[in-house]
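Q: Predict the assembly, please.
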Amino acid sequence: MLNRFKTALYNVVGSFDPGDGTLGGLGPGVTNNLPTAAGVARTGVSSSSSKEKSLRFPYTRPHFLQLGSEDEIQVTADHAIRPIICPRDISRLPWKSGYAETINAGKSKRNEDQAVVQVGLLTRPIKIAASSRTYTSQDKRTFNKPESVINGYGDADQLQPEVQEHTVVLSPQGSTLSASPATELKEDFNHSASSFRKERSNKKLSRIAIEQNTVIHHPLEETPSHSSKPLPSQPSTLQQPLVSSVSLPYYLFGVFDGHAGWGAAVAAANQLHHLIHEKLCDVIDILIPDPFEDNSFKVQSPLWAPEKEVTVENAVTGALEYAFWQMDQIIGEDKHKFQLLGGCTACVALFIHGKLYIANAGDSRGVLSLNGQPHPMSFDFTPETETQRIRKLGAMHPGLLGGEFTHLDFIRRPLRSDLGKRVLYRDHFMTGWAYKTLTQDDLKYPLVCGEGKRSRVLATIGVTRGFGDHDLKAQCSSIPIKPFLTPEPEVRIFDVASADLTDGDVLILATDGLWDITSNEKAVSAVLKSLSHFPAEDHDKYKYRYTSAAQDLVMGSRGKLRDRNWRTSNDKHATIDDITVFVIPLKPYKEEYQEWTSKQKANGGDDEKSSSQSINSPNIKCDASELEADTVASDKNLSEEEKRPYPPVMLNAGDSLNHEKDALEIKPQEDYFKNEVNQEAQAEQRLNTTLHDT
Amino acid sequence: MSYAYLFKYIIIGDTGVGKSCLLLQFTDKRFQPVHDLTIGVEFGARMITIDNKQIKLQIWDTAGQEAFRSITRSYYRGAAGALLVYDITRRETFNHLTQWLEDARQHSNSNMVIMLIGNKSDLDSRREVKREEGEAFAREHGLVFMETSAKTAANVEEAFINTAREIYEKIQEGVFDVHNEANGIKIGPQHSPSGAGLTGNQGAAGGQGGGCC
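A: Predicted assembly structure:
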């Protein structure tokens, strides 16, 4: 009913224009967003201080949409029509993945959802002459930092990021000798990219450099090649061993659902992928171990302090978690200096090393469609699903409640007349109910209230994880909300490389605008239906299939406008929220990864281009035989897969360079979806899904 | 730049009749012989002058493919003008006009001005639909008719501008309620926001008061 009213109102009023001063405090030229949005009730945001600050990032739509002008962005923001926007050039997304978005029905002037796509390459030099004794301080390790950014968020006309290069050379003592950005860096995207490197990451990279006594060098290249490149010759007086390099490509897709302004979502879409890249670089020696590294040099950990084993999965998960945390910190810092309103949720899909990692903080969702069945790859974090975490925090730190809220949960809101009576309640350590005699204190407003989509923390915010909201206060009070929110993602892993996949198997990554209306099951069947219109066998039409599926999903949740209400095809309420959807095919990545592993194997961790320079290396000699063995291996692998009924199994990818081997030695495991965080969350998720569907 | 009115157009018709090419010719004055399938919706904009008034045309180009039909239907609403396009070298695209017209009438506002366009007039040797047939169809259904070539640009300007002129006249006659945006007409901003002293990024982000084009 409320929805109905809202839609009607939006349609009567048309699109809001808060730029006309109705929102006092926002001067001309500053943002035109409304301080009200999904999940945040009015009056929650203080925008008074943002008057004089400049914008951290200009408002934009995802770069791969190629919306060249503000004019075009405006067309997409037609609240009455709610056009479904997809990329003009489908080939800009990896594997012709589908993307579609639509704006809300008028609740905020701008579309507060954002998205990012990045193809990256992690490169690590491998020393061929492992036996030569030039290790320790002369050890050279290079981090390539090429970022082919599909979504660069750069200047509209700057489709390819500029070639940038800057080098940090460290003396053996670890002091920085030079830091030279080769090119002057442009505003916005480049500014952001460089600001990391210059201000933030350099500090940290220097630290790593000090620890490892290495030379760090990251040039930004125009395009990633899946083959590795020979090292550029380094000006150095140090003795240089024969080196080659191994490059590991990765693919990143992300959706960000903004609220109370678009600032945080745009900031995240501009920066998070850079942070993730940086963190992946940090752990490159785990992702791509040097096959020739002589382990005898490693200091054996003493018996009384055994070292924990770290797998590739641990390292990637850690990189994602670290990047999420830092993203939130950066937004928090920037909020002091710039105008950067609101907060956002984040859900990132990272394809790396044969696996898919979904890091989710918020209520966006990643769902795999495998063999026509939905497999949730994320958990919806809402006040309702996180009620215990939040109430526990309130109980431990009562100061956060400002004396106005109670961490206790009552079966119904207690009334003054209930004082002294026994009422059913639960404390922060309970999931079930018990009796308590009602006291005056219990009449305070509950810390978490409401159900489902309408659940709220401190009666204000409807999301509990994500970035931003540092300045958000509980409505009609000065109680800060941020302490109850966290940027921590839950990371789930799916082993793409060992899964039995068809062209119909996809990942659906979407903001809650989609999922509020469309259940996982319905989404999967809608995708299959769309794909059937553009069969994989039809060469001409193939490239449209995932885009078409993404559009149909958006259409299904947006519905049509009937009598001033947005209604779905079966005449139920459609969403009035922004909707953003990716439909990403899984099989192309698997094939690409298989190619990559066999190449690595064939080259013995080397590359064709550089193999000539290391012809004397004993490791290259066995090339031919290994290649042969490899073909056999992959053939075997294939037939094994064909025979193997779904579900595939999870691998322990401890040794990244032996994937072929790993693939053959499949260890049967029951759960092929690894939930890195909590099992109970999964159970809750199941409950949640069923609730959703009903 | 400031404008007096903004008109929303929609271009409809079978796949491959040259809808996107017409738009490209009108907005960019160029012809692209090989064009990707339009998926969903594309858009373009151009300023024209009628009666000494600046009028901004915002044109929505839809996918002709059947698979996208349910999506493109939602764009009829909120359009002041429609270009219904067929290909004079393909009879079936002409045969489907009735269907398109029904669709348009059903989903659009009743005052929408519809212009019937027989495209690819440069390919006269391969003509399958006579000019007279197009004229007859237009007369029968109360449409304006024109044959165009997106390749040679013949009549392309005229097609868009004549449609605008007709809409403009309807406004003068008071047929259109210009204050209801659902009619596909918007009154331009009273004053251009350019004087606000904005620069660089701030301007790009803040200049959405409506005046930019």
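Chain B has seven helices and seven strands. The two ends of chain B are 6 Å apart (CA to CA).
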